[in-house]
Amino acid sequence: MNTTIRKSKLAHMKSFDNLFIELTSDCCNQKCTHCYIDFPQFKKGENFIDIETVENSLKDIGSMSLKCIYLTGAEPMTHHDFNSILRLCLKYSNVCICTNGSFINEKKARFLKKVEDESKNEIIFRISFDHYDEIKNDDSRYRGAYRHGSFAIKHLVKYNFTPIISVTNYYNEDERTICEKFLEKFFDYGIDKSHIIINPFHDNTVREDEFSVESWGRLECEYGRMLTSKGVYSCPFLANDYRGRCGSNLKDFSKIVPLETEYCQTCCKSLHEMFGINFSNFR
Ligand code: SF4
Ligand code: SF4
């Protein structure tokens, strides 16, 4: 009998730079083929975080100096209090909206600029894509996804935002080619290399006992935590997953995370954080 016990490596939190807030765990206006979220099949998602929870958590963080708050989902812009939460978060730090872009038309972009102008902090956008080719992109995401993303970029640029193109490398292609092709398409909108972030696709067919983690670049769990309506988790990948549970509030939460899930392997393969923005690379 094999009695070997596998010991997981541990990731220690180095600084609290990034707070990810899951505004909703199950509400999105789209359904991408590869989405890791378990959408309810027969009813509309309805799990939203309360604005009070967000407010109390920001007070708990207090003097810690966040670099950025990320509003994530499913689709964060489906939250009925989205505008109020955005304004609240902007009082504390820069805010990055991680979105499929489908809610951003010209009117919304103009409004968001007004909200930003009222604050001393900045709004950043991460618009998701899977491929530079419209057909391939929509095949792995949903019909119209490429158009939604491109229109969002166009409207945001008009109001002086420079959105980030956030690519999941679903087709496992050469990253340099992906970057060049996106630049060809969006260079005229002022998008440069620093605004294209490419992440490996998480293959959820890999079993936990088929991998081990030895080394890594920068991990999300070393530089931030994820807040959801259910508590605090190590990172967006492990939101609401008991394996990533770090506590119930941001006053008192675990700063050490065992790297033992299949998601950890995907993260460790990437040399940079997959959700957080490394501002030293960002112009
Ligand atoms: S847009 Fe995002 S949250 Fe919505 S289905 Fe696609 S991957 Fe999932
Ligand atoms: S999935 Fe990535 S960020 Fe999350 S705990 Fe594992 S290694 Fe850390």
The protein's oligomeric status is single chain
**Nearest-angstrom radius of gyration?**
18 Å
Strand and helix order: EEHEHEHEHHEHEHEEEEH
Bound ligands:
iron/sulfur cluster
The figure for the number of domains is 1
Q: So, the CATH homologous superfamily? A: Aldolase class I
Approximately what portion of the residues adopt beta-strand conformation? 15-25%
Structure description:
There is one protein chain. The protein has eight helices and eleven strands. The chain has helices at residues 51-61, 82-90, 106-117, 134-140, 145-158, 175-186, 220-223, 262-269; strands spanning 9-12, 18-22, 68-72, 94-99, 123-129, 164-169, 196-200, 224-228, 231-233, 245-247, 256-259. Strands 7-6-5-4-3-2-8-9-10 form a nine-stranded mixed sheet. Helix 6 (175-186) links the parallel strand 6 and strand 7. Helix 1 runs parallel beside helix 2 (82-90). The longest helix is centred in the middle third of the chain and has 14 residues, at 145-158. The protein is globular and about 50 Å long. The mean pLDDT is 90. Bound molecules: iron/sulfur cluster (2 copies).
Describe the structure in brief.
By secondary structure, the protein is of the alpha/beta class. It is 27% helix and 19% strand.
List the helices and strands and how they pair.
Elements: E1 9-12, E2 18-22, H1 51-61, E3 68-72, H2 82-90, E4 94-99, H3 106-117, E5 123-129, H4 134-140, H5 145-158, E6 164-169, H6 175-186, E7 196-200, H7 220-223, E8 224-228, E9 231-233, E10 245-247, E11 256-259, H8 262-269
Parallel strand pairs: 2-3, 2-8, 3-4, 4-5, 5-6, 6-7
Antiparallel strand pairs: 1-11, 8-9, 9-10
Helix pairs in contact: 1-2
One iron/sulfur cluster binds at residues 11, 219-221, 234-235, 237-238, 244, 257, 259, 261, 263-264, 267.
